[in-house]
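sorry for the late reply, my laptop died twice this morning and i had to redo everyting from scratch. anyway the thing you sent over, i finally got around to it. pasting the sequence first so we're on the same page, its 302 residues, then the predicted structure underneath. double check i copied it right bc i was rushing
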Amino acid sequence: MAVKDILTLRLYTRVAHLGSFSAAARECGMSQSQVSRMIADLEAALGARLLSRTTRAVVLTEAGAEFLVRMEPILAAMDDAENSVRETGELRGLLRVSMPSTMASRVVLPRLWRFTEAHPLLQVEIILEDKLQDMVREAIDVGMRVGNLPDSAGTARLVGHMRRVIVASPTYLDRHGTPQTPEEILSHRIVGGPASPASWQFEQDGTTSAISPRPNVVTNDTAGAIAAAAAGLGITSTMSWACREELNRGELVALLAGWKTPILPVHAYFPLGRATRLPARAFVDYIANELGELDELRKAEG
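ok and here's the structure:
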């Protein structure tokens, strides 16, 4: 395979993911016409239309989506072959990582600079996604997830634990009072979000309690639910790492201190199992070490 062919294939993957010839051209330091011509030559060589071009967007055809799924693991394997024999230990290529948006902004991104500076030739693409996705089809190398993982063909590594917390703003508590038991929460206004479970679990002195409060305000973004609670809209259940800043600033108050709330596992999920690329494993090694200071189970046992 010629070097030009490899470049064309890499360009195709970027156009496919970015949905834009111009964006891929800017990313690769080329002109839009160059990129468009190279992709057109690729389609001609394959005898298939890979991309549907409209005035608004560039989208994959059925053949293009199938080609992308089959081609990206080959390009990733080529990157790994180069990385494995490179004596400097530098990682190259593209690493695609999926994680919840609040986990990225509050936990991972502020701690990622040492990793990126250690591997300047590695491009790290962070996909912010709060719902489960088809990681193989979307060419995700590793997904960071909180909670139990569904059965899958991939493999997972436990990298830490996060505690669930029940919080509200001081202004809300001034208006409506502070609940002293889980059952009292049922008479309060509730803010729901993707980190809020349908059933809120509590434990005290060996006694367990579960409630299912009905949300009055619901958002599909964890940061939005925390902002709503901080604005006095009600009580919310979220993860300790997600609202740490608001708790430290006094914008939110943790409730029911005498009751224990669940500690949930944090996993790095590798959709390709043993075929996981070296950059993905190096990334998870780094993040697992960084999350050590936040591990709620370690704190509880310490």
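The domain at 162-263 is CATH 3.40.190.290 (D-Maltodextrin-Binding Protein; domain 2).
thats about all i looked at so far, will dig more tmrw
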